[in-house]
Structures are given as C-alpha cells and as structure tokens.
Amino acid sequence: QVQVVESGGGLVQAGGSLRLSCAASGISFSIYNMGWYRQAPGKQREMVATISSRGSTYFADSVKGRFAISRDNSVNTVYLQMNSLKPEDTAVYYCNIYPIPTLQWGQGTQVTVSS
Fold this sequence. Notes:
Elements lengths: L2 E5 L2 E4 L4 E8 L8 E6 L6 E6 L5 E3 L7 E6 L4 E6 L8 E7 L11 E6 L1
Parallel strand pairs: 2-10
Antiparallel strand pairs: 1-3, 3-8, 4-5, 4-9, 5-6, 7-8, 9-10
C-alpha cells in the first residue's frame, strides 16, 4: 500500500523550531524527488521545499534561510527542519512527490506558531 505519514508538528512560539518527518511506504522512495507542501486556512496548498533524488534542495522564498530539507533513503523518510518560525508559517504540512504530487495525500501535520 502506497502511503505517506507526516509527523512532528505542534504548537510553538514565534522564533522557535520544529522538525517534521514524512515516512513513505509502497514506493521506490530513493528514485523520487520529494517535496514538503503546506496549506494554511483559506489558502491553496503551496510548495515549501524540495529535495531531489540526488539531494539537491530548493526552497520557497518565504522560508529560504530558515528551513532545511533532508532525506534518509535507508528509512524512506524526508525531513523538514524549521527554524525561526513565524506566525505566517502556521499551516498543515504535507509531503509528496515533486513536482507532480501523485501520491495520495496523507493527513498532514499541523504546525501552529503563536506570536
């Protein structure tokens, strides 16, 4: 069964940090470019960060310099380290294949940043 399971979200004060994890199963994880996406209330889902199968990374301007993405192919997991969090980072965070998110979306993990 193909699925992704996100975890690691929570409530944090502005300026704080969180590390999200996304465990994938049922796919040949190492060959795929992966991405973290987020959806804030009333807004469309947007890409936050991507990592290629070879480890090249890309970040949306809104998180550049604050977020880091990494992957561990041995455990089929992609991570998102979020530092210097801002209230505008509040959203549900998801992972999926990039650039075309063809996997069924997981439940995501809620990140709430208080001011």
